[in-house]
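Worked Example 4.2. Consider the chain below.
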Amino acid sequence: MMLLILLLIMRATTTMIMTKTVTMMMAVVVVVVSTMRRHIKLSHGPNIDPRVISSPICDHFR
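Applying the procedure from the previous section yields the following structure tokens:
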């Protein structure tokens, strides 16, 4: 009985850690994409649409 409870607690903590890391990675990706978009806008001017560059990443996480 005690083992089962321990297993459940361990599983809950691991899933929490996993979701935390996933959300962290998502936030990092969002920040990187926004900064990249800004850099592209600054370096290439308005002729390149930043949505075209970041759309595959957004589609991947949608």
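The helical segments are 2-44, 50-61. The longest helix spans residues 2-44. Compare this with Example 4.1 before moving on.
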